[in-house]
What does this fold into?
Amino acid sequence: MSYRYEFDDKSVGSLRLTRSNYEILQDGFRLLCDELDTWNRRALEHGAAGQPYDAEARDLTRIIEWGEERLAEAEAQEISVDGISIGSLRYAKAALLLTIRKREQDRASKAKEGWPNAALRSLDDGIERIRKIADIVKYEPSDVLWEVIPKESTQGGTQLVQWDVFISHASEDKEEFVRPLAEGLQAGGLNVWFDEFTLTVGDSLRRSIDRGLAHSRFGVVIISPNFLRKEWPQRELDGLVAREVAGIKVILPVWHRISADEVRKHSPMLADRLAASSESGLEHVISDLMRAMKRDDHTREVALPDTTPMSSGGTVAQRGVPAGFALRHDLFEAIEVTTSASVFFQPGEPLTTIQGWGRTGLKPVMPDGPKLYLRLLPTSPTEPLSSADAYDGVRGEPRVGPLNFARNQGYFDGRNRFGAVDLLLDPSDDAIISLTQIFRNREIWGIDRDMVEDQAEDAGERFGYFPSIAMERMFEGALDRYLVVAHQRLKLKPPLTFIAGATSVEGYRMAASILGQQYSGRVTTPDIRFEGIVTSYEQSSATILLPFFNLFWEECGIRRPPNFRIEERTPRQKR
It folds into this structure.
C-alpha cells in the first residue's frame, strides 16, 4: 500500500502527561524527526527532485519546538496539550512505537553481549513504561512510521518488512479458500506472503508466526477444522490473541467453516476474539482484513457524543479490527486522552449535583488512588441518547447500580454532561466510593475504589490486596446488570466489547485462602487491563469474565485454581 502524506488537523481534546512522560515523548518526536531528516538527506544525495518527507519533518519540528518551550517552564510538573489534533496524536503514537522498537533492538543487542538478567530487566521496565504511555493514545500511528521502521537485510543485520501480510493456514484449506483470499488481498494492493505458511502436522505454530512477523506487518491465521486438527498446544493458540509488535496487535484471525463453540473447545481466549468469517463470503473477509490493515483507519475508541471531550481510559487493545471504537460517525466526537485507564473525568471533577443526607447542592467527586473498572461498549456507532433517556437507563428496574452494588445505603443518581450516573457515596466525606455512568453513546462504565482501598500487613510489610471472591462476585454481578440494561434499555446488539481492569495497583497481592496462605503473589506493573467480546446475551457473566479473571491472577504472578468458586455459580439474570 503506497504511502502518502496527510495530516488531520481536527481538534479532539487534550493530552495530559507528567513532565517525565512528556520528556520521553519529546525524545520520541526527535527520534522520528531524525529518521525522516536522514532519508530526506539521502534522497537528495542520490538525485531526488525534493525531500520525500519534508512536510512530515516540518510538522515534527513545530511539535518539538512547542514541547521545548513547555519543558523550559521549570515549575511545570504536568504538560497539557489542549486542543490537540488527530494528526499530532498520530505522530505521538508513531514516535513512541518507534522508540519502543529501537529500545527492543538495543535490549536484544545487550542480551547477546551477555548483560546480566537484572540489568536486562531494568531495560524491560523502561520499555514497558514507554508502552504504557503509547497505550494512552487511542489512535493509529502516523503512516510515516511504516516508512522508517528499521528494515532488515542480510547485510546490515536489521529487519526487512518485505510483505504487508502473511497467511498462516492448514494445507487442506490452501486451494479452496486461502489462494483466492490471497489473490483478493493482492488485488487490493497488498503484498501477500502465503506459500511458505502452509502448515502440516509436526510444524511449530509459534515458530511459523515468529518467522512471518519478522518479515510482515500483519499475519492472518485461518482458523478452520483442518487447522485445529493439527493439535496445537492451547498456549500457542491463546498466544495468537495477544501477539504484538511495538504495541500493535498484528494477528488477524479468520474463521473458516467453524463455529465459535468449536473454537472455544480449543481456546476460549481465541473464541472471544472478534474475527472475520468466511460464512459472510470471501469479499466480506477481504474487506474486513483490508480495513483492519489500512493505516488511515486511525482510531481505537468510541467517542462520547455531544460532550466536551473527556478522557477515554485505557486500548482498548486492538482485536484485529479497530478496538471497539470509531470516529467515523458524525454523531460522535473524540474523547480526551489522559493517563488513567480507569476514569473518564478530570481529577477532582464533580460528576453531578445531588441532594443527600439533608443537604442540597452536593457535588461528589472520586478521589485519586487504586481503582477497579468495567466498561461495556457498542462495537459500532449508535444513535446517541438524550440526557433524559440516559437518566432513565440509570434509574429503571432493575437498577443498573454502581459497580460495587453490595451496600444497602448511600446510593444516589443524577445527570451530568456525559449522560447519567449512579453513585455510592461515603457519608463521612461525601466522596464517591463506586459508580456506574451511562453515556449518551450508550456505553456503560463502572468504577470502584472500595474493593481495593484496604491495606493488609504480613511479616511487617503493608500492602494493598484483592479480595478474590468478593472482587469476582462484584465484576460478575455488575456485568450481569450491565447486560440487562444494554439489552432491554439501551437496545444494543451483540457483539459488545467489554474492558475490565485495575489501575495504580503495583505491589498488590491476591487474598485467596484456597492457595494455602492468606496472601499470594504480587502485581509488578501499575495497571491490569483486559479486553474481551460479548458475542451473545445468552452467555453467562462468569463465562464472559473467566479469561479476565485468569489474566488478573496471572498479573499477580499466580495461577487461578481451576475449581475456584465453581460451587457458587448462579444463573444469569433474564436478559
User: Anything to note?
Assistant: The two ends are 45 Å apart (CA to CA). The first strand starts at residue 14 and ends at 18.
